[in-house]
Predict the 3D structure of the following.
Amino acid sequence: MDSPIVIAGGGAAGRAAAQTLLAAGAQPLLHLAGPDGEVLDRTLVDKAIMTGRITPERAQSMRPPLDGLETRTDSLVTVDPPSPAEAAPGAADPLRLTLGSGEEIDAAALLVATGSSPRTVDVPGHAPWARAGRLTTLHSVADAMTVRTLLADRTGARVLVSGAGLVGSEAATLLSEAGHTVTLVAPSTPPGEAALGRTLASRLAQIHAEAVDTRFGARLVRLEELPGSAPGVAVLSDGSRIEADLVIIAHGARPHVPQGVGGEAGIPVDDRLRVRGRPDILAAGAVALFTAGDRRTAHDTDGRTAYRIDHWDDAEAQGVHAARTLLHDRGLREDPGAYRPLAPWSARIHGRQLAGFGHRLPGAQERIVSEDPLLVEFVDEAGDACAVLGLDAGRMLRDHGRSLRG
Ligand SMILES: Cc1cc2nc3c(=O)[nH]c(=O)nc-3n(C[C@H](O)[C@H](O)[C@H](O)COP(=O)(O)OP(=O)(O)OC[C@H]3O[C@@H](n4cnc5c(N)ncnc54)[C@H](O)[C@@H]3O)c2cc1C
């Protein structure tokens, strides 16, 4: 039997890639769904599973295995051998993959969509909190269930959320709406400026401050005193001591990079989502590392201008695009062109709708399109708009988002 095309990752990007390859009749296909087979829409982790709106089983059943390909609960650990830098796209030599189960398989092609895992903290005193289920990240079903188990049938619990990115902001919103007392901590002031720009980030900081206790410009430095079920104390860098029943760490995520492709920062890809220096492999979703200057100069992967995108719709769009590149490289369809991150995303924060299209590239400058509703466009160094974000901007944002697509 021919070696399969292997898709590693059962999340947004991996599943979209598998569906695209299936629809094009590419065979045989092997889908590695990950080490724990947790195939779910990750956006449900906080909004639906943590809040008890749906069970983990229901979430999993919403993404059943795809017909027409083999799906395994297994992970990609190592890719071997390294391809020569000059390897042609779609090179014919099979790749040897080592899986988490220990099995070794040959692959005709590989698409890596292994996502990311949350950053954790190891501040002094963290271990007893974690053991008691009172310190958690918010990324997986298990994390959501830790929060749910502790807070079910309770109101008025004291929850400290560390990190005010989208996941931290949503958690602060959902838990304060559920009647808990939330303290939101973030080291930067205003939090989220790099992604949202100063104007929008400042407006958001104000919205948080009106809804929860905010401690911006401070970081969690120690966890202490955990007497049974009574609240413990979280100590911040400004010396303040916050009583907390639960601490949620929302410090962003690190890419899951299998050995043999990429590095700690992610898997560097070119504008077609081929792995740089290994054009016979593709990467998509939260694991893929882009380079800001790609549309003009490319090749700067020193970390200053490199960026990853971690939004659901964008990960799906990348999965589709990478699969199309793979089909092109095998002579099965036309070149899909350069990938442009233009997918929509949104988050509901204290009753307000924060939403956007595209991604703010490193170095892009903000331009206020409208003060009320607030609509901000980001313009890259070449003068092209790369993202537009709005707060309760509804139709104005949608119209502007369409114009971004050209
Ligand atoms: C709590 C939370 C809420 C979010 N809410 C939103 C939202 O409202 N809107 C939005 O746009 N985005 C949201 N996001 C972000 C969004 O979920 C991610 O951007 C998206 O899931 C990334 O897709 P992905 O396919 O790259 O990774 P994932 O969807 O995380 O999938 C990665 C897959 O790879 C598997 N895997 C891991 N390692 C291996 C390996 N070695 N081999 C094989 N498989 C492996 C995993 O098991 C998983 O199946 C949220 C994220 C979190 C954590």
